[in-house]
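User: Can you help me understand a structure? I only have the sequence.
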Amino acid sequence: MSATIVYGVGISGRGAAEVLARRGQQVFLYNDSPATIPEELEKSLAAVGGGLVCGSENYPELLAKAEQVVLSPGVPCDIPNVLEAEKLGKEVISEVELGYRLYGGHIAAITGTNGKTTTTSIVGAMLERLPVPSAVGGNIGAAMSKEVEKLPQNGWLALELSSFQLEKVTTFAPDIACMLNLTPDHMERHYTMEAYGAAKQRIFTQQKPEQVTLLNYDDPEVRSWGAKAPAQVCYFSRKEQLKQGIYMQNGDFVIKWKDTEAVVCNIKEAQLFGGHNEENILAAIGCGFFAGVSIEDMADVLRRFKAVEHRIEYVETIKGVPYYNDSKATNTDSVIKALEAFEKGHVILLAGGHDKMTPLEDMMNLVKVKCDALILLGEAKERFNEAAMAAGVENIIIVQSFKEAVEKAYELAREPQVVLLSPACSSYDMFNNYPERGRTFKALVRALPH
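Assistant: Let's start by predicting it. Here is the structure, written out as tokens:
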């Protein structure tokens, strides 16, 4: 029996290995550096003649036994071990491709640089209104391959997908593919915007004509992808009243598609705010509509849905100053959207972390307009400081720790200002992930003198 290598021991890797072992497939969970896995998983792998293997010196022998390599999202496609597998004729696929092959049900897949988690969470809540089982997975929740195990063929999966997860899909063809936006991100992995965009496009390239591709009409690059999509294309827009599509008119969310013309609800009824969330809601309505969710159910979900944790999440008001946790803003475009959401400005912004080397000019130009103070921390602080000064930002404070950043914001903040953590960076210089960073921020804020 040929073996499968699952490369990477994170949530996706462990989930994929567990599912394959349960199906009787000999599977080796591989990691470049030393790692441990739960004892139960270890036993499952051993039962099918597999196991955990660590260290590159063991990889060639392992590769000789395998026909297939399943990549976790954190494993780049251009590293020597992956290239060697392809050179030897092994099939290299992503964990999402594996999950797709194991599942015969319905999928609403969402990608984009920003807004994926909020949109997918809204879609997940909408799919729960259908009379069939549904789940949420991918870049949030459990590995896709694990989520689909519990779904029947008439079920629906709301699937958040990153560019990393899409790089190695080959047959993946969701019923609904949604592309939210495209701005510079992950240049340390994709190197060029062309490569980044190409990875994102893989969400729809294998679709069938009867399936649906939802594209953001307001993003010129994404709009142009309509010409490449093999499925029927539906655009959504918050700026244009489309002849056909999902759009906004006087604050109403409107569906106009073939024989359907309906208002779902008004933005004033929703609990989310900011232009970026209007786009997310339009995209979610598109997914819900084509999945068969009723207008009434979609409206009810939107009236009840609250902000996703770590995405412009209100924390507390101290001495008249509200504090917001936007730890999920790991790129500059996310920060721009967050700052635009505060129409009156007067923001004290906490930014910096592990630098993703994205361009900073547009963000800093807006910081100059919207922010009363910019507090910089982490590995990126010096580059961010240079860019801020070049843009004419005046009140810049550099701190050495996360705690110091929060305390400095508290010291400066007065009504009508707001304090916003929106880092424009990943968290790996100080934290394991952005949720840990966000929870730390919230704990520090709540500990401040009231």
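Now, to help you interpret it: The longest strand covers residues 260-266. The first helix runs from residue 11 to 22. Let me know which part you'd like to focus on.
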